[in-house]
Hints:
The structure is a single chain. The protein is an all-alpha fold. Helix 1 runs antiparallel to helix 8 and helix 9 (187-201) packs antiparallel against helix 10 (205-225). It is built from twelve helices and no strands. Helix content is 82%, strand content 0%. The protein has one domain (2-301).
Amino acid sequence: MYKKSFWRGAGFAALYFAVFLVVQFAVSIVGMVICVVNKASTDSTFLEKVTSNDIQTATNALMSAIAGNPTNYMLLIYSVLTTAAVLIFLLITKRNPLKMLEINKLHPVSYVVAIVMGVAMLLFVGCVIDLIPFPQSWIDQLNNTFDPMMSASSVLAILAIGIFGPINEELIFRGGIMNSMRRDSTSVVGIIISSLAFGLMHGIPLQICYATFVGVLIALVFHFTKSIVPCIIIHIVNNTTTTLMNIYADYFPEDFLKKGTPSFGMALGVSGILLALGLCAFYFIERNKRYAKEFSGKAIAEVPQA
């Protein structure tokens, strides 16, 4: 029975992931074709570079065509389309999206906790990643990918990276993949599979490590609250804060949050404590809600009937 339910959960999880990948791939291909055609019409040397025997030259030429606003537009479009595809599928199959994706209301305090955890997670995971001696090529690859996106339109970057991207990813990875595995298997399996899928989806080695770590923390929040609402809030706060810090990086001190500085140590310690307190707060708030609901149900059942 356990094996049967496990594979049923795995099947639904794979379906959510497939929808995400198919929409992302389709939008990326169409967007890339449009960008290449547009670049070729404005740059007479572009086609020569793309067809060059030097792979690095061809790759750089292609990246120059989609860097910046085009990438953000594609991210925004496939985020909206993926979310729409999942909701339409659930409605067609007569499943309640609110129930299937665990879009549940929270205790009012939980919204504040989620906002604080979003900032704390950004600082803590960022500091931990900085302590690991990753290859310089990984760091350069990450910078080359995200710097053009951050230096493009600020409003577009915030919409794509900070808001719509997180909503789409939480619906798919926590509401869809983790929830499917949790229902038909165990929460531990759901946390592991959803976090790994979330990390691998980002593609870039350093981003895979960062996103997997973030995925585990957000999955724990989902496990405690049984709702993707705090997960969406945490993810939006994390990504939006990251985007704003990159856009306005010139306004920060040069050694801000640099490894070995007092600000780095303080950020690591304080954010770690806030994360731990946030997880504990979610656990106790939701546990008390369940106890209150059970107590209320028992009290009603014990009322003498006239």
